[in-house]
Specification:
Pfam families: VanY (PF02557)
CATH class: Alpha Beta
CATH architecture: 2-Layer Sandwich
Structural class: alpha+beta
Biased composition (Low complexity): 11-24
Organism: Tenggerimyces flavus
Distance between the termini: 31 Å
Number of strands: 6
Protein name: M15 family metallopeptidase
Strand content: 5-15%
Number of domains: 1
Region (Disordered): 1-40
Strand order of the largest sheet: 3-4-6-5
CATH topology: Muramoyl-pentapeptide Carboxypeptidase, domain 2
Order of helices and strands: EEHHEHHEHEEH
Length: 181
């Protein structure tokens, strides 16, 4: 997956307007965002060596891989829809959310700024497939993996204290999370 900054995530780079002849193709060419920025290829798991996975916090990644190993024993594969992201990729997602939801305020319920995003910090992952989300919602605390936002059943972060105490109460959405203020 590759996107141009300012392009829809579903747009391909070939759908972008070509630079005018007066523009230098190297000076004004839009930057393409791809795997190096955290775009996740289809079918990615927590065992794949792509930047969205490899750039996650080491303790977080270890917990994810242990959970995925145990989930596989139950016949569940944990896929990654989002992990670590570059600030540019996160900014692109935020701009897309503002366009989709019509305001920065509404977009902030779904996408954090690059400065506040736990994806940019390597401390958040978005899990794919309903079976994996269901498995983690029941068993994730044993690995310190917790769903943080009620409106995002795919978003997990590491909370090591959850192993002993269970996951903390969820925030309704990121606008209720004091870390996002």
């Amino acid at each position: 997956m590759a996107v141009l900054i300012g392009q829809s995530l579903t747009s391909s780079p070939s759908s972008a307007a070509a630079p005018s002849p007066a523009e230098s193709p190297t000076r004004h060419r839009p930057r393409v965002l791809g795997e190096a920025d955290g775009a996740v290829p289809d079918g990615t798991t927590v065992f794949d060596d792509v930047p969205a996975v490899a750039n996650l916090d080491a303790d977080f990644l270890q917990a994810l891989r242990q959970a995925a190993t145990d989930a596989a024993e139950d016949g569940v594969e944990i896929f990654v829809n989002g992990g670590w992201r570059s600030p540019a990729y996160q900014e692109n997602l935020l701009r897309e959310a503002v366009r989709k939801y019509g305001s920065e305020e509404e977009a902030s319920r779904w996408v954090a700024t690059p400065e506040k995003s736990n994806h940019v910090a390597g401390h958040a992952i978005d899990i794919g497939h309903a079976e994996a989300k269901a498995w983690l919602s029941k068993r994730g605390a044993a690995y310190g993996l917790c769903q943080i936002y009620r409106n995002e059943p795919w978003h997990y972060e590491l909370r090591p204290e959850a192993v002993e105490n269970g996951c903390p109460p969820m925030y309704d959405d990121p606008t209720h999370d004091p870390r996002m203020q």
